[in-house]
Amino acid sequence: MSMVDVTPKPEIYREAAAKGQIRLRAETVRLIREGRVEKGDPLYTAKIAGVLAAKNTSILIPLCHPIPITNVNVEVKILDENTVEVESTIKAKAKTGVEMEALVATATALLTIWDMVKQYEKDAEGQYPYTLIQNIRVIKKVKSEFERDCY
Questions:
Q1: 143 with 16: CB under 8 angstroms?
Q2: 26, 112, 114, 132: which one has the fewest Cβ atoms less than 10 Å from its Cβ?
């Protein structure tokens, strides 16, 4: 087992975006909207968690290369009465892609939301029958010798 050798590859512009959702009780989403979550603002905290996760992806994923990330953007929004969506976009000039960074940022942001609202999501037995993280996927991948070609 070893990392893929990217030594001979040139550094080029890389970009990837990933998206996912968390389904919550309507009451929980209402608390988020009203700014009444006891732990603080889950949407803002999720953004910070996503940025930190992207920057530490190679520590979390054993054979993932450390990449000199040049930009991380994590967007968090309430889609409807039961769903919060996270979309993370990562940019770099590197020898390998940034899909893992985008996925890790998205997953970590969603997990952070769950952690911050779990007290509202538990049922009478302390279980989470309504809470669901879903559809985490890469929605965009860009690879170009010139950044200007990507827009």
A1: no
A2: 26
* Rounded distance between C-alpha atoms, residue 26 and residue 19, angstroms: 21
- Residue 101 pLDDT exceeds 80: yes
Whether 80 contacts 28, CB under 8 Å: no
Looking at the domain 14-122+129-144, which fold is it? Alpha-Beta Plaits (3.30.70)
The full DSSP string for the chain is ------TTSPPEEEEEEEEEEEE--HHHHHHHHTT--TT--HHHHHHHHHHHHHHTHHHHSTTPPP--EEEEEEEEEEEETTEEEEEEEEEEEESS--HHHHHHHHHHHHHHHHHHHHHHH--TTS--SS-EEEEEEEEEEEEESSGGGG-
Token pair 């993280």 is at which residue? 133
**Structural domain boundaries in the chain:** 14-122+129-144
Tens of pLDDT along 14-45?
A: 999 999 999 999 999 999 999 999 999 999 99
Measured distance CA(133)–CA(118) in Å, rounded: 13
Tokens standing for 97? 């892609």
pTM exceeds 0.70: yes
